[in-house]
Design brief:
The structure holds two protein chains of two kinds. Chain A is 39% helix and 27% strand. Chain A is built from ten helices and ten strands. In chain A, the strands form two sheets. A six-stranded mixed beta sheet of chain A has the order 6-7-8-3-9-10, with helices on both faces. Chain A is globular, with a radius of gyration of 17 Å. The termini of chain A are far apart. Chain A has one domain: Rossmann fold. In chain A, 48% of the residues are buried. Chain B is mostly helical. Chain B has a domain at 14-210. Chain B has eleven helices and two strands; from the N terminus they run ααααββααααααα. Chain B has helices at 2-29, 36-53, 58-81, 88-110, 134-156, 158-168, 170-174, 180-205, 214-227, 232-253, 260-272; strands at residues 124-127, 130-133. Chain B has a two-stranded antiparallel ribbon. In chain B, strand 1 (124-127) and strand 2 form a beta hairpin. In chain B, helix 1 crosses helix 9, helix 3 (58-81) packs across helix 8 and helix 9 (214-227) packs parallel to helix 11. The chains are: A alpha/beta, B mainly alpha. Chains A and B meet through helix 2 and helix 3 of A and helix 6 and helix 7 of B.
């Protein structure tokens, strides 16, 4: 069985269905990207993995079903960097990171050193409140907080949204290092297909809550379904 | 003048202790717990029962009052707040009704006549020429010790940070492995404990009566409105502003105007700075 395995996932907001029979798998050590336009269901998919939405279908992680809500998902080894960061605005960078360590208190020193190695700027600004930080810095804190949970799978929702190209490059490099140096498995969602193709090995194209295409970057690069998902033609 | 400063400091310490448990619930759970004053009543009467009627040691009486307050907070969360989750108006109305029910229970158990709680620490001392009872001095010192401990707990421990995190972003806390429901439960327990302990000192400063929950509730609401949510330091400062205003009103103007300036301050803050003097606008 795949490291992360999602089968026939349906997600609902009240009576509205946001995901339709989504199936997806991710092997250990892989970087995969789910790409799609606004409203395709990317954030819902990641929220569903964390147990934040009402779903049917199965989500298994490392051979066992995930069904205990976000705290259980974190304890099982899934770290989440959400699109809007969901940081604690009036707490310092350090305290934000420490909240991430809530369930991984034995690994604090090791994880904190890894976060500061990855994002030296956070070490310099660890006393700064996150409400006063730039978008790029907040993304770093968000990823850092996820890393403080000692994850084996890192899921990140639109890591480049609203960020300057230089910061996007930094984030891409950090994600690659997390896989190469720390052995993390990474699942990202992206609207920026070019960014996703430079980072991921495999892609899923999501449109209107359903998977329209899947394959390696080379297989999908010129696939008309990719264009269709974005431009509807 | 010196007497006003000393009385102001002493009263303000007590007010800060009264208000901090209420602020905590409002900050973390976003619930205006209108039954908060009932914790003080439970604490005061429990202490009266255990220490004055059963003759248990004073410290044990305070601890048992705190335990009962904690249980009241936990039960209220479990039986009232969870079933009404998300409906803040229903929660607020229910907490107010609960306070009235608790008041009726107190009347049933202890009668409706006021009772004098003997001083926790008897005796009087002179500080810079002002007469100060050991009772209010103890209340102030205990208040400060509790407030400092609470501040350190919230700022320096994992659980305290988790409480702050839930108050600022529930989803962010949840994806960090914090269970917001557990944190809310803990907060209600702490708030109940703080309210009950404050009730022991408040009753020993004033008197025990079945309507004693109203005045502390007004103080707590005033501190939250004037101070804004989410700041223990803000709570402390505003408790001192209100405490000093009351002492000055009583000593220099007219004792009848004791609470009037607090009310005027609430109205002024609501008009000029609705988020409170130390409150921060939420970032979505």
């Amino acid at each position: 069985m795949a490291f992360l395995s999602i089968e026939n996932l349906n997600a609902f907001y009240g009576k509205a269905q946001a995901l339709h029979d989504v199936s997806l798998s991710c092997e250990k050590g892989e970087i995969i990207a789910v790409i799609g336009a606004n409203g395709a269901g990317k954030s819902t998919l990641l929220d569903s993995i964390m147990g934040l939405t009402k779903t049917t279908g199965t989500i298994s992680f490392d051979g066992t079903p995930l069904n205990g809500g976000p705290a259980a998902a974190v304890e099982r080894g899934i770290g989440y960097g959400p699109e809007r960061f969901n940081l604690f605005p009036y707490m310092s960078v350090y305290d934000n990171l420490m909240v991430g360590a809530f369930t991984a208190r034995n690994d604090i020193e090791k994880n904190l050193a890894a976060v500061f190695r990855l994002f030296p700027r956070l070490e310099e600004r660890q006393a700064q409140e996150t409400s006063t930080q730039s978008g790029g810095e907040r993304q770093m804190v968000s990823l850092g907080r996820a890393l403080m949970t000692s994850p084996r799978l890192l899921i990140v929702d639109e890591p480049t949204i609203g960020l300057a190209p230089k910061v996007c490059t930094e984030i891409a490099a950090a994600l690659r290092r997390l896989r190469d140096d720390m052995g993390l498995t990474i699942l990202i969602t992206e609207q920026n297909a070019n960014f996703a193709m430079t980072l991921a090995e495999r892609l899923y194209v999501l449109e209107a809550g359903a998977v329209r295409a899947t394959g390696t970057v080379d297989e999908l690069r010129d696939d008309p379904r990719l264009l269709e998902a974005y431009f509807g033609h | 003048m010196l007497q006003i400063i000393i009385q102001g400091l002493l009263l303000s310490g007590l007010y800060a202790l009264i208000a901090v448990g209420f602020t905590l619930i409002f900050s973390v759970g976003r619930v205006l717990n209108l039954a908060y004053g009932a914790y003080l009543m439970i604490g005061g009467y429990a202490f009266f029962f255990f220490s004055q009627q059963l003759g248990l040691p004073i410290l044990l009486g305070v601890i048992l009052a705190g335990v009962l307050g904690c249980l009241a907070g936990l039960l209220k969360y479990r039986l009232l707040v969870i079933p009404l989750k998300g409906d803040h108006v229903a929660i607020e109305i229910s907490t107010l009704i609960l306070a009235v029910v608790i008041q009726a229970g107190i009347v049933l158990l202890f009668g409706d006549s006021p009772k004098v709680l003997l001083p926790i620490v008897p005796g009087v001392t002179q500080i810079a020429g002002a007469s100060v009872t050991f009772n209010i001095l103890t209340a102030t010192l205990v208040s400060w010790a509790i407030l400092i401990s609470l501040y350190l707990f919230i700022k320096k421990t994992h659980l305290g940070r988790a409480m702050q995190a839930v108050s600022m972003d529930k989803k962010g806390a949840a994806i960090s492995g914090v269970n917001p429901d557990h944190i809310n439960m803990l907060t209600w327990g702490i708030s109940g404990t703080l309210g009950a302990v404050a009730g022991v000192f408040f009753a020993s400063y004033t008197q025990l009566s079945p309507s004693m929950w109203v005045a502390p509730l007004i103080i707590a609401v005033a501190v939250v409105i004037v101070g804004g949510i989410g700041s223990i330091i803000g709570t402390l400062i505003v408790a001192h502003i209100i405490g000093f205003m009351e002492v000055i009103a009583v000593a220099e103007i007219a004792p009848e105007l004791r609470g009037v300036f607090t009310m005027l301050l609430i109205i002024a803050v609501l008009i000029i700075r609705p988020q409170g003097l130390f409150g921060r606008e939420e970032i979505q």
